[in-house]
Amino acid sequence: MYALLNERLLVDPASSEAMLALLADAQFGPGAEPSWVTRPEFAPPGVGFTGTHTKIGLGPLKPENGGFDVASERSILHQIDTGPKSLEV
Predict the structure, then answer these.
(1) How far is it, in rounded angstroms, from Cα 69 to Cα 31?
(2) Among residues of the chain, what percentage have pLDDT more than 70?
(3) Measuring CA to CA, how many Å separate 37 from each of 2, 23, 40, 54, 69?
(4) Other beta carbons within 10 Å of 81
(5) What's this model's pTM, rounded to 2 decimal places?
C-alpha cells in the first residue's frame, strides 16, 4: 500500500498528496514519532536509511488475543545508496 501511495497510484493525486503530507508530518512535524529504523538507538550501526513518511502504532491487542502490548510501523524509507524502499515492520 505504501509503495502505491509513494508512486501516487493508490488514490487520486490530491488525496495522495494529502495522505503523504500527514505521514511526513508524523516523521518530522511537532510531536513526531520518527521511523524506528532511522533512530540511532534502534538502527544497527552502519545502516544507511532516511525516513520520509511514517506511521507508528502502539497499543494492546484485544483481550481474546492475549492483551499484549504491540508496536507496528509502516514507513517510506530511502536507502542512502540505492533510493526509495517501502518497509513494513
Answers:
(1) 22
(2) 84
(3) 16, 15, 8, 10, 19
(4) 6
(5) 0.70
Closest CA to 69 of 77, 78, 82, 58: 58
What is the length of the chain?
89
Instruction: Please give the Cα distance from 6 to 27 (Å, whole number).
Output: 15
Domain ranges (residues) in the chain: 2-88
| Type of residue numbered 76 | I
Q: Are 74 and 52 in contact (CB under 8 A)?
A: no
pLDDT tens digits, one per residue of 50-83:
888 998 888 999 999 999 999 888 889 887 765 5
